């Protein structure tokens, strides 16, 4: 198993060797035509990128050579000098030195002393006379060039689109594999069963190998935030210390891509609305410099991305009153909401605390876009806050969106899949543990009253009519135990009454085709081993429908 450091080194090597080849090519083009602006711009870009990458990896001398070369090409672009004479000789020598440094890194060797070259580059930048300058090569250098072999990187770049297609094909294979396994079990043929088990192992390994190829370190996104925080802090006239942790945590590249805007929104929101200015912080007995932490960690099969600040915190009562004034919730319902229930209102479309951000400790500038992004991935959002101490938003994300763990349930002799990410617990409730309040059936789960609703009522609901008011008399007296699936979304729990639970298994989710893709209650479809199509329930949509139609 490769270490993360080794993987980063290999990625650096692959990119650096490409840079080196491109530098040599563009230098030759520039030598033939010193007015070639495209070649000059590309050389400047390559040196800039190599400088940044080398410094990030700790290759100081390589970074310094690239930095001084970048400066020289910047002077040429600025028409402070022309690409002639000693400048041509020294730049070719510098690229050769960079090539030797890159190869030394790949071989695990120490790089040669770059001090003489750096001194000459410094002198050339300042317009001074070069030390030991030489328009020819030494005999040793000529021999080394003559014996040098062309090198290819051990790594290849693959467009994400190709990986997506490969994963889609693997998904098709997994579906057919499950069907073959089911058929083999039904026929009871020993040889077929043995072949089916072998197919299962191979396809399983292939599936996870393809998924593993798509994994990237969260750092590729997190490392872009120092500049973002610096710019927002400067615009807000605030002092902010950014702390990044967990950059090595691995996640599917597509998941990271889909969550980029949401994370950016939370970070900007944290600096702009979460952290106070220096004077306010000092008056409250806090350090003048606010702290913002962006961290990543794993929790079972999920990846957690957290944005945490030590700022104002959420003023729960202010949010409650603002939600009532904005018509997001009625005063009667708002009065029944606990702290987490009130915080969930921040993510309702159109809700914002921005109008009075200087008067109350608030959040909520377009946070509904964050929730929509997480819902699209089948993720969850956790909020924790303490007034005057700070706030933490935690995005709970699947490692991969290609294969999902799901619980299969049955309703009216049809199977449905519920993503495990939104399942809380399963219960077998006797009649005496179910009660009715305000037209809703309820049960007590971990010291919390959780509403219950028959799943068929939600699936078959029509128009804008509210759900029928329920009483205990609606319960089937012939059933001694009621099968209930507790799901959670946006810090709310909902109990779904189903016919029975089937099993838990990984599923490959396919998008619904038109016109079924317009039905919000379903997040896709999968094919079971029996060949039966199985709709995947969209828990956020079911929860929203229940809230909209509750009696």
Automatic annotation (TrEMBL):
Database matches in Gene3D superfamilies: Histidine kinase CheA-like, homodimeric domain (1.10.287.560), Histidine kinase-like ATPase, C-terminal domain (3.30.565.10), HPT domain (1.20.120.160), SH3 Domains (2.30.30.40)
Keywords: ATP-binding, Chemotaxis, Kinase, Nucleotide-binding, Phosphoprotein, Transferase, Two-component regulatory system
Domain HPt: 1-105
Top-level EC class: transferase
InterPro entries the UniProt entry points to: Bact_Chemotaxis_CheA, CheA-like_dim, CheA-like_homodim_sf, CheW-like_dom_sf, CheW-lke_dom, EF_Hand_1_Ca_BS, HATPase_C_sf, HATPase_dom
Catalytic reactions on record: ATP + protein L-histidine = ADP + protein N-phospho-L-histidine
Modified residues (Phosphohistidine): 48
Matching Pfam families: CheW, H-kinase_dim, HATPase_c, Hpt
Domain (CheW-like) ranges: 403-548
One GO process term, biological-process aspect: chemotaxis
Gene Ontology molecular functions: ATP binding; phosphorelay sensor kinase activity
The enzyme's E.C. designation: 2.7.13.3
Domain Histidine kinase intervals: 151-401
One CC-aspect GO term: cytoplasm
PANTHER family to which the protein is assigned, alphabetical: CHEMOTAXIS PROTEIN CHEA, SENSOR HISTIDINE KINASE CHEA
Function per UniProt: Involved in the transmission of sensory signals from the chemoreceptors to the flagellar motors. CheA is autophosphorylated; it can transfer its phosphate group to either CheB or CheY.
Protein name as annotated: Chemotaxis protein CheA
Source organism of the structure: Hymenobacter ginkgonis
């Amino acid at each position: 198993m490769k270490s993360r450091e080794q993987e980063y080194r290999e990625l650096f090597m692959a990119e650096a060797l490409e840079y080196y080849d491109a530098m040599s090519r563009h230098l030759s083009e520039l030598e033939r035509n010193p007015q070639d602006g495209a070649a000059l711009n590309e050389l400047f870009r390559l040196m800039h990128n190599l400088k940044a990458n080398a410094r990030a990896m700790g290759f100081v001398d390589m970074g310094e050579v690239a930095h001084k070369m970048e400066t020289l090409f910047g002077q040429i672009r600025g028409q402070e000098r022309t690409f002639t004479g000693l400048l041509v000789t020294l730049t070719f020598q510098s690229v050769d030195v960079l090539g030797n440094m890159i190869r030394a890194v790949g071989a695990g060797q120490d790089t040669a002393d770059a001090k003489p070259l750096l001194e000459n580059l410094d002198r050339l930048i300042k317009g001074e006379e070069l030390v030991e300058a030489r328009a020819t090569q030494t005999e040793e250098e000529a021999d080394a060039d003559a014996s040098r072999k062309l090198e290819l990187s051990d790594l290849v770049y693959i467009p994400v689109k190709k990986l997506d297609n490969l994963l889609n094909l693997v998904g098709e294979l997994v579906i057919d594999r499950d069907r073959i396994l089911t058929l083999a079990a039904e026929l009871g043929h020993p040889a077929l069963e043995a072949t089916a088990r072998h197919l299962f192992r191979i396809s399983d390994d292939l599936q996870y190998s393809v998924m593993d190829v798509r994994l990237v370190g969260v750092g590729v996104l997190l490392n872009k935030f120092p500049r973002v925080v610096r710019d927002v802090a400067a615009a807000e006239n605030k002092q902010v210390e950014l702390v990044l942790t967990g950059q090595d945590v691995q996640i599917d590249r597509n998941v990271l891509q889909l969550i980029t805007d949401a994370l950016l929104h939370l970070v900007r929101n944290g600096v702009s609305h979460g952290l106070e200015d220096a004077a306010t912080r000092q008056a409250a007995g806090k350090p003048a410099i606010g702290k913002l932490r962006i961290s990543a960690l794993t929790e079972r099969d999920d990846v957690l991305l957290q944005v945490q600040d030590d700022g104002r915190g959420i003023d729960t009562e202010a949010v409650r009153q603002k939600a009532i004034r904005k018509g997001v919730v009625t005063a009667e319902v708002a009065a029944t909401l606990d702290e987490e229930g009130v915080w969930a209102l921040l993510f309702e479309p159109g809700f914002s605390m921005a109008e009075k951000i200087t008067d109350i400790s608030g959040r909520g500038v377009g946070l509904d876009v964050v929730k929509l992004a997480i819902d699209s991935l089948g993720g969850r959002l956790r909020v924790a806050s303490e007034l005057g101490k700070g706030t933490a938003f935690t995005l709970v994300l699947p490692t991969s969106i290609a294969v999902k763990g799901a619980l299969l349930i049955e309703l009216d002799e049809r199977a449905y899949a519920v993503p495990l990410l939104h399942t809380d617990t399963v219960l077998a409730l006797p009649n005496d543990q179910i009660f009715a309040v305000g037209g809703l059936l309820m049960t007590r789960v971990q010291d919390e009253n959780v509403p219950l609703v028959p799943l068929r009522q939600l699936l078959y609901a029509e128009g804008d009519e509210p759900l029928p008011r329920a009483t205990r008399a609606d319960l089937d007296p012939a059933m001694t135990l009621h099968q209930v699936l507790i799901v959670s979304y946006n810090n709310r729990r909902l109990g779904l009454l189903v016919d029975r639970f089937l099993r838990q298994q990984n599923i490959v989710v396919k998008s619904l085709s038109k016109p079924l893709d317009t039905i919000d209650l379903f997040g896709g479809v999968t094919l079971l081993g029996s060949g039966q199509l199985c709709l995947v329930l969209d828990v956020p949509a079911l929860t929203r429908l229940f809230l909209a139609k509750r009696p």
